[in-house]
Design brief:
Number of domains of chain A: 2
Structural class of chain A: alpha/beta
Order of helices and strands of chain A: HHEEEEEHHEHEHEHEEEEHEHHHEEEEHE
Distance between the termini of chain A: 89 Å
Largest interface: A-B, 112 and 112 residues
CATH class of the largest domain in chain A: Alpha Beta
Oligomer: homodimer
GO molecular function (chains A, B): carbon-sulfur lyase activity; transaminase activity
Strand content of chain A: 15-25%
Pfam families (chains A, B): Alliinase_C, EGF_alliinase
Cofactor (chains A, B): pyridoxal 5'-phosphate
CATH topology of the largest domain in chain A: Aspartate Aminotransferase, domain 2
Number of helices of chain A: 12
Family (chains A, B): Belongs to the alliinase family.
Strand order of the largest sheet of chain A: 7-13-12-11-10-8-9
Helix content of chain A: 25-40%
Largest sheet of chain A: 7 strands, mixed
CATH architecture of the largest domain in chain A: 3-Layer(aba) Sandwich
CATH superfamily of the largest domain in chain A: Type I PLP-dependent aspartate aminotransferase-like (Major domain)
Domain Alliinase C-terminal (chains A, B): 96-405
Shape of chain A: globular
Chain lengths: 412, 412
């Protein structure tokens, strides 16, 4: 090759090399301000991404604290009726347990919103019993809950107090104590309208107080009553108000399902004691987080006292998680999550109704007509996360036995 | 320049450029196996490291869910008696609240062990109410607890059952229910030996059952008793056994302080119902995690039932955190944490005793002589996390008033 041609070739190769160098140096060092090197969080982040990358066919998941192989590697934990190392196998003759709900339908939503709602929890995060100010309740989380109800238009929280609990189960116990005469649960009768979900009487009929059954049977009774009102009701999906009247009647309103993915929101509720839970809002039942919105200061203080004696408040890591999840919900004024939730529920009801319409033996509850939803600003029907089945044939006295024929098990 | 010299120069520059390219490409792409690029965890990791890097002079901390500035940036939350943006200011005339404990002395240990015990919590982690198998108790965590007692030699857990609770507070309530005649807490008398910590009677004298005061006053009584035994006892630091005898006496043993940082471990305890808590073991009081070790299957099942009705188990994020923390403890057979904990407590007792020895007005409890610790394999004295003060002058009837003179406030 002639020297001139050689020089031209060198110039080109050198040019390419220098350009590549600029590119590499740029990627390595110039982005460092936006993208700092991680130190103590890196191993945990890699571990979490590795566990999340394990494929379980959409019928299971591997967890950081889950089952591990003999080599100590996390493995898939399969959903009911699935099996195999990647959960791709179907267990023949498997029974579906239809006895209680687990709002896992929102799991795909959270997988789509991983980066905004992931938490890196340092081992020194909130080690103290309280939050520095002697309180067991995160002020930041309290603010988010007010904001959440404001954007969802499902409850008026103005001037009301907020108590945190480990799910609405604990808050219900706290509320019964606080509303009882002299804080003695035995001095009041606790009632709930039928139909109610099978879990309600288990919880209400606990050691601490007697559950006196259906509200309607006490409509004309005199005495101290605590009326438990679930709205929308589980299992019939109807919006409900209290039934008993009089100054000796106190009410606990369970609004676990009063969110736009399950029902039209015709008005913001404005009751004296309202319970909500993260389980049905974001699908995080495992976190055991709920809150009560309380009008009366004395009731609020009694509930705080109960929480303090029962568990000394709610775990700080749970409060942090709830905060991060609500931040994601609030960021789009709830639209992304409620749109996802409502459309998923609607699609499932579509499929379910189609299958049920083919049967003359089993039917389900009739729903209220469409109502105007102040949140979605349009007419919506109920899309509850439960169904109330009925066996239509007179000879089918044992409806559970009929369900068993199609591999479903109801409340044992 | 002559073409030959030009070629030589080009060759050298090109050589350097290519070497640099190899270096950069190597750093950018070849390390990818050891150090994979993070995706959805990166923002959270950066946020956590940024919050952790905020300097608060060792007298405070900034938190992910903590106070924020008007610009929305996390700011220092100062410990009691400190103030200012970096907590460097001392509040003059500030009172020290000596009414209850908060085992924050282990915080520096966890800051030194950040990378092994940090958790990256995906928003889809354990959303379900249960752990897939219908259980509310992580099998992995249960295994670690058995291992922990085995290495610490402080409790025999062989063949015993484990129940998780939100701190030992909830487990104490669960145990009283389970041990009561017909599960009715009113049918048994609950007693504890004096001296006991001021919180004990608040908890024991709750709505659900009556606290019948000091065990000694019932030594010759007949009837159903539940005896609450704290060992080492708070506040006197002594190892204790039960006092009442007979087949109608059931015992709940609170071993919150039976760990090598607080006491010599002369033998593994082997009682029927033993309570432990993460608060005093690792210092994570805010997590509300404790466990009961139970010999009798029926009592275990009753406690599980109570846990299910009270809060439907313990938050899954808390269980994951406890697992990670115990893994760090177990990795060195407890040595690193217990060495740190014991030497910190010993140093503090040294300083405290020196100050106290200068006073003739206030004294503290006398300690048991040194005992052989099976864990440390040497003689150790007690180094409890509490002190039992006594006012020596006859005229100092109100000991609290004396403490107030030196800016300390006891139980209000």
């Amino acid at each position: 090759m002639k020297p001139k041609a050689q020089i031209t070739m060198f110039t080109v190769v050198l040019g390419v090399s220098i350009v590549l160098n600029f590119f590499s140096f740029g990627r390595l060092y110039l982005n460092s301000d936006d993208d700092p090197d991680l130190t103590w969080t890196e191993d945990a982040a890699e571990e979490a991404e590795a566990v999340a990358s394990i494929k379980c066919s959409g019928h299971g998941m591997a967890f950081l604290d889950g089952l591990v192989s003999v080599e100590g590697k996390p493995v898939c934990e399969c959903h009911a009726c699935y099996t195999g190392p990647d959960c791709a196998g179907v267990i023949q003759g498997c029974f579906i347990e239809a006895d209680s709900g687990d709002p896992m339908f929102l799991e795909p939503f959270w997988m789509q919103h991983a980066s905004g709602s992931t938490i890196v929890l340092a081992p020194w995060h909130r080690m103290s019993y309280d939050l520095g100010d002697g309180s067991l309740i995160s002020k930041e989380l309290e603010t988010r809950i007010h904001k959440l109800h404001e954007i969802t238009k499902n409850a008026n929280t103005d001037g009301k107090y907020i108590v945190f609990g480990a799910g609405s189960t604990q808050l219900l116990n706290a509320a019964v104590h606080a509303l009882s005469v002299d804080n003695d649960p035995a001095a009041s009768r606790v009632v709930a309208s039928t139909p109610h979900y099978p879990g309600a009487d288990r919880i209400l009929d606990s050691d601490n107080y007697d559950f006196n059954g259906d509200t309607y049977t006490h409509k004309n009774d005199i005495g101290n009553f605590i009326e438990f009102v679930t709205s929308p009701d589980n299992p019939d999906g109807q919006l409900r108000k209290g039934i008993l009247e009089g100054s000796n009647v106190k009410r606990i309103h369970d609004f676990a399902y009063y969110w736009p993915h399950y029902t039209a929101i015709p008005y913001p509720t404005d009751e004296d004691l309202m319970l909500f839970t993260l389980s049905t809002l974001t699908g995080h039942g495992g976190s055991r987080f709920g809150w009560a919105i309380v009008k009366d200061k004395a009731v609020y203080e009694d509930m705080l006292k109960y929480m303090s004696l029962s568990t000394y408040g709610v775990s700080k890591e749970t409060q942090l998680r709830a905060l991060k999840l609500l931040d994601v919900v609030i960021a789009t004024a709830g639209r992304e999550m409620f749109d996802f939730g409502y459309s998923t529920m609607k699609e499932r009801w579509g499929k379910f109704s189609k299958v049920l319409s083919m049967s003359k033996r089993i039917s389900c509850q009739q729903f209220d007509p469409l109502r105007f939803c102040n949140y979605f600003q349009e007419l919506k029907g109920p899309t509850p996360p439960f169904v109330w089945l009925k066996c239509e044939r007179e000879e089918d006295v044992d409806c559970n036995a009929v369900l068993k024929l199609v591999n479903m098990i109801d409340w044992p």
